[in-house]
Amino acid sequence: MHELSLNEAxxxxxxxxxxxxxxxxxxxxxxxxxxISAIEPEAMRFCFDAVTRGTLAEGAxxxxxxxxxRGRCVDCGREVSLTQRLELCxxxxxxxxxxxxxxxxxxxxxxxx
Length: 113
Hints:
27% of the residues lie in helices and 34% in strands. By secondary structure, it is α+β, with helices and mostly antiparallel strands. It has a domain at 2-69 and 102-112: hypothetical protein PF0899 fold (2-Layer Sandwich), CATH 3.30.2320. Strands 2-1-6 form a three-stranded mixed β-sheet. Strands 4-3-5 form a three-stranded antiparallel β-sheet, with no helix packed on it. Helix 2 (41-52) links the parallel strand 1 (26-34) and strand 2.
């Protein structure tokens, strides 16, 4: 379950940012998870509570926003929606689609005290 290590890295970043701005508590961590990122939102939520214990984010809410997958066909050049990685272009049917959105995890916003 790589979501555990992703949460550990996320909380390290959250604590660094909170301390940098003199915050004493993190109330909400808002992240964007790409629909084609191979990250399971429910697994992220499950690990989040365990990883935040004893940190500035203990008791914080994890708010997950799903970002749709988008890509560009290398053959016809069209922008298309993606539901998975390594998809053929739904427009021309022949070209491989190179993702440009929806394949990552991004810290979007913190609510702090």
